[in-house]
Structures are given as structure tokens and as C-alpha cells.
Amino acid sequence: MAQNDENLANLDLNGLRAEIDAIDQAMQALIIRRTRVVQAVGAFKDRQIAAGSKVHVPYRPAREARIMRTLVRRHEGAFPKTALIQIWRELIAAGTRLEAPYTVALCRDADGQDCWELARLNFGCLNEIVEFDSQLEAIHALEDGRAAVGVFPAPVAGEGHSWWPLISADSAVRVVSKLPFGGRPVGRGEDTEGFVLAAIELEESGDDRTLFVVKVDQPGDEATLRKDFAKASPGSAILGVFTPTTENHGFVLVDVAGFLCNQGENFRRTLLDHGLKCGDVRVLGAYGVPIPADEM
Q: What is the pTM of this model?
């Protein structure tokens, strides 16, 4: 039987170890119970699919973001929050795999950097990770269902080739999450950041940012663009600029505070009102804001 905290000081080493064993047994029993509930969720979805509902990837990053924020907010004691989140990552990944196993796509950026470690930490130890030969092939794998989610390196200012201009306007693939979300476990790529891409519906997590691709006339230098966008949309950040070699226009990937997935035209008008010569504006995705380091 679990002891009250004030009684722990009265236990010898064998008593303390017995207490740990009792807690472990209770935790495992709850995991077993949780798994049965997850299986019931899967059975419910199977019935919906049999009745004609659309098949969905069992991945809801906005819900996961809310879960992780709640874990951190209510946590107390010496156990590290980063490790706590990693435990739940494995629980969630194992549960979604029971609903439907899925493949995680990877690719490398121009510098040869991939996000293997971020993918494994976020999607657990059981889901298959496949590295594709090119960024475009990885995107096509998401579009045709060979992979359910992909983890792509975050764009770097000034890089010559990035994945985001390769996503066409009619593609169902969107940015749906940013990694790492809560804490950064020690590993070989401690400074790596990435975005999760998937062909799923975007959901609001309660604290979000939206990615827009903006077509601009005669983009000029990046420093001026950054200044113009910061003036038109305070708090926004340019993540990348792409200028086709045979065109006199460019595309800007801009990160804006808020869940604004239905506000593309309003954002365009805001840019025009501040003197930016822009054409089409489309949503590339949205993501829950990662938990700040000082809260971990």
C-alpha cells in the first residue's frame, strides 16, 4: 500500500523499495487501463469508417499540445518535466499505433541535416522512420499516403534550397507542429529544430502561430523585407525567401502569431495597407507554440 509522504522517513531501504514496487504496479495497471480505452476509441472510429466516414491519420498535434501544456502546468516535485513529457510522448505514440501504424518521413536539408532524433522522440520508438532521397520525394510520400507524417528541418535564413517552396498551392500537406515542443532531451542534435508536415485538418491548440506563403513583387534584399513585414505585422518573423531564377517575383514564408488559417485574405489586405506589393497569400500551416524553456 502506498505510504503518505510524511511516513516515508520512517521506512528503511527495503520498505522504500517496496513502496516503489507498489507504485510501479499501480502505474502499469493504469497504463493497461488506458490502453483499453485507446482500443475502444479505435473501435469507435472503425465503426464510423464502416459507416462511410473518411479515414484519418490518428495524429492530432493540437490535442497533444494541450495535453503537454497541462502536464507541465500541474507538475510538481523534482522529476524533470522534459522526462515527464517524453513518457507521455511514448504513451501517445504507442496508443496511436494501436489505432493504425504509420510511417514517418524524413529528408535532409542542403547542409545534410535531418531530424531523425526529433522524429524518434516525438513519434515514439515503434513507428517506422523512412528517410527519402530528396525533399520533394518526402513531400510526395505525404501526398500519396506512403507516409502519414514528415519531420523536416526548420528553414534557415539564406539557405539556397528548402522544402517549403516545393509544396504546391493545391497540396493537402500542411505544417501542423513545431519540434521540439516541450524541453530538449540530450542527444546528438541538441540544436535541431523541425516542422511536422501532414495531410490533416488544422486545429487550434489555444496558443498558435500560422505560416503564410506570400508572393511579393520584386522582393529585393531580405533585410528590407524583414523590416517591411515587421512593420505591417508586429511579432511576425520571416522564415525564408525564395526567388525563382526566371521570375521577377519571389515568395516569402512568414510566421504570424495566432491561429489565422481562415484569414489569408485579411492578412494580404494588411500587407497591402502597409505598402507591401504582394500577390497571392496562402496558408502553409499552423502549429501550437512550443512550451518556453523557462517553464520546463
A: 0.91
